[in-house]
User: Fold this.
Amino acid sequence: MKIDSYSFGRMTIGGREYTSDLIICNRQVHDNWWRKTSHKLSLEDIKAFLYNTPEVLVVGNGKFGLMKVQKDLINYCESSSIELIVQKSEVASETYNELVNRRKHILAAFHLTC
Assistant:
């Protein structure tokens, strides 16, 4: 599953447009994803998706990079040998596609707006 496009507040995946934050896990899109605190991404926010330990966690932190990854999630990734990539959402969508091409086991979390 590849990301077709990203623009502020919109992401198209497999021809379907999404307008809310989303997670891609096991080649499935989980839209209408919300974090406990708006512009902070913590372990608790994605813990349910970490059951099948990914090789890579790609975080699209918004058009302007305003969503911040919290230390608990950073520590978890380090202790679990999960590569953590945090980028603005447009760049992160390109990174995700490159990793999919390399057949990596990826978990991706995208903030679509700011």
In short: The beta strands are 3-7, 10-13, 16-18, 22-25, 28-31, 40-41, 56-61, 68-69, 83-87, 106-111. Residues 3-111 form a domain with the Hypothetical Protein Mth938; Chain: A, fold (CATH 3.40.1230.10).
